[in-house]
Each structure stands twice: as structure tokens, then as C-alpha cells.
Amino acid sequence: MRVPARLLPLPAAAAASVLLTGCFSSTGSGDADAEGKRIRVAMMQPPRSGLSPLSDDAFKLSRWSTAETLVKLDRRGDARPALATEWEQSGKTWTFTIRDGITFHDGTKLTAEAVVNSLTRAATSAPKPRILDGVELTAKAEASDTVTVTTATEDPLVPQRLSSPQLSILAVKAYEGKTVDPVGAGTGPFELTDVNGTSSASLDRFEDYWGERAKAPGIDVRFVPDGTARAAALRSGEADIVEAVPVSQAAVLDQDLITEVPMPRTNTLYLNTEKGVFKDASMRAAARAAIDAESIVKGVYEGRADVAEGLLGPALPWAAGLREPVSRVKAGKPSGQTVTIGTFTDRAELPEVAAALQQQLQKAGFKVKLDVREYANIESDALAGTFDAFILSRATVLDSGDPAAYLYSDFASDGSFNISQLADATVDKALRKAGERPAGDARRTAAVAAEAAVLSTDAAVPMLHERVIQGDAADVVGAAHDPRERELVTADTYVR
Q: Which Pfam families match (predicted)?
């Protein structure tokens, strides 16, 4: 039974208080200066890779409006100009015109060479950013304001790929060390000025920004993995914007301060197809048959989620209309086999989901052990196939606005995020077909067919589609509520 924050026993309440003590220093207190208040933001996950844009940390840089890409996506997922003003395709090559008059935060100018430098570093990194899984990409400066991007095969989604925050364009100085350092190297309305490990970050308004001048003088970020502490920061007035308010805390907050947005994020149980109990397809089917997702939505998420019909959820409404029944292996009968399920604490609901699954699978005849840690301490084991199963809250169109990239990353034989260790020729064929189709109805149909191919293996059991719950203090104006989790604080965001 969940205990509301207002009813926490003294030790738990004290622990939350300790987590919040000094959450925002006096330097970034949000006090008004001559031009308004700095925005205090409580983020869920600390940086995993020193804020390198080649990792998932790129989405923090994007949400703080400090790093920008050549292209951005509109609400429909269509490509729109950003650092590039226009583009055209000729076979395997796309030509992009670079916007004139843009200055990096270090004072250097945005040029075609700088763009090529960023794209080449991303394309040749190991591992590659997810958006480039299965893509061989080369970039070349054709003129001071013109860049060509060429792929090994014709790729209709190059503009969408270049919208990924993992392909942000940074100043040359960012790449001079062994790791990519985004401090003072972006082009956005806010300049990243300081990063204090996994504790905090600071950004100041960039006065030479090429677009609309930011309304707030700066941003002070604190990384607060504990969901209760994040919610308490909003309640106490210590934070202006709180990312990912846990479902358990949403009900005890002022409902006028929270916004609930359906998002393309699926809570999925990945089953290890390479070794262990779930190498047997009938045991994977037994696990899938044992899961009662509706009870998890009602019990853990208090109804603030949607039961999954597939990997692609209601944030992609076209998927349901294209989906057909999936042919699956008949479920076997478990006879006391022991399985270990891994998950992480960063998303407050996941340990509760794990506990619920443990009960459901044990009722079906499995013996279940749980391994729950912070994500930074468990990701490598998950990718190495250490667990029999892993529970992951996974964004399905985070990178390109197109689910084909996510499906390839997670389920292709050579996918960089293949937690299920899946190697299935039929799935690979369907994924390649989806990746080759042009944007539009044909590509959407192929993506749903690829989803069906994955589901037929029971390598992944989608349970529910999450909704993002964001907390904004009453005096916050213009905070972004982005289902793709690319925007949070924009040039239009400020505190009254």
C-alpha cells in the first residue's frame, strides 16, 4: 500500500527533507535580479556520460535549450528548419543550407566545417548514437554555408535523424578532449556555464542568440533522483519546474500545479532470448500470459497510464488502426524455474511494477528474484544480458519522431540497445523494410508490421504507456510540456 507524502512517518519525511536541504544554492535561488528570476529546475536522472551529446544526456541539453540541431520536429513529427534553413535529397545525398549569422557560446561562428565536425564525431563514435543504428553516414562541407550528408543506402529520414539531440551541433572546442564537453559550446538561448558532476548544472542567458532572446536570465538545475524529494521541492517552493513527478506524489500535490501529458513511452518487460529460462519461447509466452497489465495500471499508476495494446501507444494514434492480431507461440507451464528481473529506481514506479510482476509470475509457477538499482549502475548489466528479464520505461519516438529507429535499436540483431538479445531473421527483415520505406503511410504500415514481428517472439511484453507528469510552480510562465521530452525550458519560459 502506498503512503501519501503528507502521511509519511517521521524517518521517511526526514529523509526527504535531507535530500532537499541545499537543493538550490543561494547563487541560483530564483531570487529576482535586475532582469527577472532564474528558473530552478529539479531533474530526475543525473548525467550518465558527463552531458556528452552522444549519449542520452543529449536530451538534457535539449531540454535546457543550450544545444541545437540542424532540424527540429513539429508536433506531427515533420521536419522543420532550425540551424539549417532548407534541404533537398538527391539519391543517397542530402544537401543542407546552414543558417547565417549564428554564434556558438564560445564566440566562434557556425560554419559548414563546424557542422561536419559534429556530425562526423557522432557517426564515428563507439557506440553510435541510437539514431544512427544501422546507418552509415558521412558529412562534407561543400561551401561555407552548405553541407552534404550521404548515407550508404537511400535514407528517407535523414532530416528527422538530424533532429535528434544526440546529433546536436557544438563548437569545435567541445571535441578537443577524450570526451565531448558541451560547456560553453552550444548555440541555444541558454549557455551551459557550469556542471557539478551528477549534482547540478547552471546556465546563463546567451545574449548573442540568433533567435528570440530568452526571457529568463538563467537556469539552475539540480539532479534529484528521489521522486518524493522532487515533489517536495515543488510543494515547498524550492523548485520552479519539476520533471517527472511520480504517480504516487501527483495526488497529494496541488492539481493546478501539475500537467499530465500522454507520451510515447512504453513500460515493457524485456525477456532474454539468448540464454536462461526465457531462451525457451514457450516460457516467454508463459510470462506474457501471466502478466495482468490492467492491475498494474490501476494499482501502481493509479489510473494515470494506458494499458498497452502493443509497443507503440496512443501517442501514435495511427498505430492502433494499422495493427492486426499477432500469431504467438503457445504458452508452456512453468515448474518452479528461477528467473531474475532487473529494473531501476530512477523512475519511482518501476520498483513497484517489479514487485507486482514478481507476484504475478510466481502465481504462474516461476520463482522470481529482483535486482533493483540506480540506472547508471544497472544499464551495462542489462545490455550484457545478465538478467532473465528487465523492466524498462522506453521512449518509442524520442530520437527521430519515427518508431523505426527505436524498433531497430531495441530488437535488431545488431541493435545497440538489444536488451532481449534478440537475433531473429524475420524480425530483422521487417525492421529493414520499415527503415527503407519513405515517410508517410507506407512507412507507418511497415513499422506496425515490424512491431508485430517483434511481438510474435515474446522477446518484449509491452505492459503500459506512461503519461508524463510535470510540476510547474504557480508563477512559472511558458514551460514546455513536450511528450517527446525534448523541450522543458525554452526562450519563452520565465518566472513571474
A: SBP_bac_5
Buried-exposed string 5-32: b where 16+ CB fall within 10 A, e elsewhere? beeeeeeeeeebeebbeebbeeebebee
Grid cell in block for residue 418: 538489444
Grid coordinates representing 444 are: 507507418
Within 13 Å and on the Cβ side, how many CA atoms surround 135? Answer: 31
Distance (Å, rounded) from C-alpha 170 to C-alpha 68? 8
Complete domains list, the chain, with CATH: 5-65+188-240+473-495 (3.40.190), 71-173 (3.90.76.10), 262-467 (3.10.105.10)
Cβ proximity of 306 and 293 under 8 Å:
no
C-alpha cell at 385: 544480458
Asked if the bond preceding 127 is cis, omega within 30° of 0, the reply is: yes
Give one DSSP letter per residue of 171-225, joined into a string: -GGGGSSSS---TT---SSEEEEEEETTTEEEEEE-TT-SSSPPSSSEEEEEE--
Provide the phi-psi class of 478: left if phi over 0, else alpha when psi is between -120 and 50, else beta. left
Local confidence pLDDT in tens for the 496 residues of the chain: 333 333 333 344 444 444 454 556 544 444 555 568 999 999 999 999 999 999 999 999 999 999 999 999 887 778 899 999 999 999 999 999 999 999 999 999 999 999 999 999 999 998 889 888 878 999 999 999 999 999 999 988 899 999 999 999 999 999 999 899 999 999 999 999 999 999 999 999 999 999 999 999 999 999 999 999 999 999 999 999 999 998 889 989 999 999 988 888 999 999 999 999 999 999 999 999 999 999 999 999 999 999 999 999 988 888 999 999 999 999 999 999 999 999 999 888 999 999 999 999 999 999 999 999 999 999 999 999 999 999 999 988 867 778 888 899 999 999 989 999 999 999 999 999 998 888 778 888 999 999 999 999 999 999 999 988 999 999 999 999 988 889 999 999 999 9
- What single-letter amino acid sits at 473? A
Q: What is the DSSP string of 140-165?
A: EEEETTEEEEEESS--TTHHHHTTSG
Tell me the C-alpha distance between 187 and 170, whole Å. 7
CA–CA separation, 39 vs 34, rounded Å? 14
Beta bridge partners of 141: 147
CA atoms of 19 and 22, how far apart (whole Å): 8
Q: Is 262 within 8 Å of 208 (Cβ atoms)? A: no
Dihedral-angle region of residue 107 (phi above 0 means left; psi in -120 to 50 means alpha; beta otherwise): left
Q: What angle do CA 209, 213, 216 make, to 5 degrees?
A: 120
289 CB burial (10 A radius; 0-12, 13-18, 19+): middle
